[in-house]
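Protocol step 4 of 5: obtain the predicted structure for the target chain.
Materials: sequence only (see below). No template structures provided, no constraints applied. The aim of this step is simply to have a reference model before the mutagenesis design in step 5. Sequence pasted as it appears in the construct record:
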Amino acid sequence: MALHRVYPHGRWRELLPGLWIIRGKIGAPLYRNMVVVRLPSNDLVIHSAVALDDVGMAELDSIGRPAYVIVPNAQHQMDAPFYGPRYPGLRMICPEAARLEIRPVATIVATAEEVLPGLGFVLHPVPGSKAKEYVYEYALPSSDRILIINDMIWGPNATPDNLGGRLMNMLLVGFHDRYGIARVYRRRMVTDMPSLKRFIAGLSTVAGLKLVTISHGDPIATNPAAELRAIGA
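Step 4 output (structure tokens):
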């Protein structure tokens, strides 16, 4: 079996008790985030897997037992196969609507609809978009609620602070120091912007919302409800 390529990445950060994030690179000047939620059972739910070096994997093992990998859509499946051989019994899951698109790369054993509600997740289907994905809502042990968003919202530091990163930001994102719907998502995915914006604004009403993670950019940690309302305005 060919070795799986591991791109450069940072170190794990605990955002809240039971919630971690790590930022990785790809071949292009673009960052991507892998998010991990620890369940009361000590099992880990991984969202948008990023292949890690030995230090990163050891740190992951110290957090808990990787048990589930959410492949959020077909564009975020590249590193999912890295995890299966290391963790026998790991369940690879994705939205039912995305299953056929993901199958060529990742071996999906169940759907998000079948598995995640039983683990305490609430699934919010993203409307007005070609992206076959969900926003995942989860209540941490503190009762604080989080939202895990994939490509629908981008934020600050989605690209490196260098010439290549600034050019990539100009092409893909269209803004630098705020949160919003990225240019690439508007062009390639959005089919009904008013519906999408109403959905984003509606997420601000999630009771006890503490933090929002996104796959490209910094988490929304300060007044996330207000940020969501602003994006949806």
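Step 4 remarks: The chain has a mean pLDDT of 95. Helices lie at 54-63, 99-102, 112-115, 163-173, 183-188, 193-203, 224-232.
Proceed to step 5.
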